């Protein structure tokens, strides 16, 4: 599905992404882990067109999508969520979903003047679709709530719901569990699994919660210092010497190993 080849993103002399290469398989849920500052979010931003690469290549199903802006990638089914949810706080939860699809009839002045019936018909269809999404995510009781009043976890569910309003092919989720209580995190995990199995969504997930990663993701990719360090199952990643050192540092790694052998 997505292939990243020798990708670089530099900020002056700082190499946030430094020659990363990886593949995200079609219909997989791939985990992306690594210590803070490893370059994970920057990698997401480059793939999703938020930042241009310094060099390297990104392809989707063989098509070169390197450096395409987010709105073009959106129409190709490439979506990205952020660590902090970006909702329209003064609009209702339902309205936040209904505005997602592009090229709506009501966006043109001609239609607004002369094709009101078409606009009403389209809005009714979007409302029905939004309600189905909210029911799928088990937050249909919040349809009329202002989105700004939602909890952190509910806002993450709303962001996931936005991806369901369009023909998403691959979704990049950035720390979906940040600031979310365990109950809602399980609900988010259930929704991701269902979207993957029932609708064929491909996901790549940045997350620090290893229980969440272990439940959802195979394979798991570990980054450190802008590079891909290791790839495999979560158990393989956790046993990898380079990964242990990247997370703990050499001194602490040796101490842990000494205590384990004592």
Instruction: Please give the number of β-strands.
Output: 10
User: End-to-end distance, in Å?
Assistant: 46 Å
Please state the structural category: alpha/beta
Q: What share of the residues does DSSP label as strand, in percent?
A: 15-25%
| Gyration radius over CA | 20 Å
Tally of contiguous helical segments: 11
Mean pLDDT comes to 90
**Biggest sheet statistics:** 6 strands, mixed
Which bin fits the share of residues in helices? 40-55%
Order of strands across the main sheet: 6-7-8-3-9-10
**Spans with pLDDT under 50 lasting ≥5 residues?**
none
Tell me the overall shape.
globular
> What is the H/E order?
EEEHEEHEHHHHEHEHEEHHH
Note the quaternary state here.
single chain
Keywords:
ABC_transporter-like_ATP-bd, AAA+_ATPase, BCA_ABC_TP_C, alpha/beta, 11 helices, ATP-binding, 262 residues
Q: What does this protein look like?
A:
- With 262 residues, the chain is an alpha/beta fold.
- The protein has 11 helices and 10 strands.
- The strands form 2 sheets. The protein has a 6-stranded mixed beta sheet with strand order 6-7-8-3-9-10, sandwiched between helices. It has a 4-stranded antiparallel beta sheet with strand order 2-1-4-5, covered by helices on one side.
- A hairpin with a 2-residue loop joins strand 1 and strand 2.
- Helix 10 crosses helix 11.
- The longest helix is centred in the middle third of the chain and has 21 residues, at 116-136.
- It is globular, with a radius of gyration of 20 Å.
Give a summary of the structure in a few sentences.
The protein is of the alpha/beta class. It has eleven helices and ten strands. Helix 10 crosses helix 11.
């Amino acid at each position: 599905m997505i292939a990243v080849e020798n990708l670089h993103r530099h900020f002056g002399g700082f190499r946030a992404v430094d020659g990363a290469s990886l593949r995200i398989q079609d219909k997989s849920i791939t985990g992306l882990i690594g210590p803070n500052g490893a370059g994970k979010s920057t990698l997401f931003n480059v793939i999703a067109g938020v930042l241009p690469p310094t060099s390297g290549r990104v392809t989707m199903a063989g098509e070169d999508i390197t450096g395409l802006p987010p709105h073009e990638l959106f129409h190709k089914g490439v979506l990205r969520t952020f660590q902090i949810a970006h909702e329209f706080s003064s609009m209702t939860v339902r309205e936040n979903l209904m505005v997602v699809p592009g090229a709506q009839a009501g966006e043109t002045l001609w239609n607004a003047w002369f094709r009101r019936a078409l606009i009403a018909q389209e809005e009714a269809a979007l409302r029905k679709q939004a309600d189905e999404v909210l029911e799928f995510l088990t937050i249909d009781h919040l349809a009329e709530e202002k989105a700004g009043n939602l909890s952190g976890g509910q806002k993450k569910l709303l962001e996931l719901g936005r991806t369901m309003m369009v023909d998403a092919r691959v979704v990049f989720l950035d720390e979906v569990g940040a600031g979310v209580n365990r109950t809602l995190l399980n609900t988010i995990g259930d929704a991701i699994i269902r979207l993957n199995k029932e609708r064929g969504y491909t996901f790549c997930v940045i997350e620090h919660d290893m229980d969440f990663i272990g439940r959802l993701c195979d394979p798991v990719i570990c980054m450190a210092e802008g590079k891909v360090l290791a790839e495999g199952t979560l158990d393989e990643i956790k046993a990898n010497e380079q990964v242990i050192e990247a997370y703990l540092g050499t001194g602490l790694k040796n101490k842990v190993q000494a205590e384990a052998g004592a």
